[in-house]
Amino acid sequence: MPEEAAAVATRRPAVSSEQVVRWAVRLLWVALPFTAGPSLAGALDAASRPVQLVASVGLWAGWAVGVAASAVALPAALTALRLLAPAAVAATAAGASSRRAVR
Which of 58, 63, 69, 92 could tie 36 with a disulfide, CB 3.0–4.6 Å? Predict the structure, then answer.
């Protein structure tokens, strides 16, 4: 019986905090088009069609790189996320402020 108690005490938790953080980052990044998309689309409303197209392609490419980076546990992927995450926040803030200025 004491051996079983020692085995139970040394078991690792079913889900580590590292895994929770990884999945939270993945879910948040996948949700980004739904949360930041309307703000960015509103900011691009007044732009010409070629500008809208280039911006949309660039934003979707950045999002796809972020999805791939969040799925891979490599140092280069972490670096990509460290660059893309603040850029996403800045783009969303800029889109929200320019949208208010247009109205």
Answer: 92
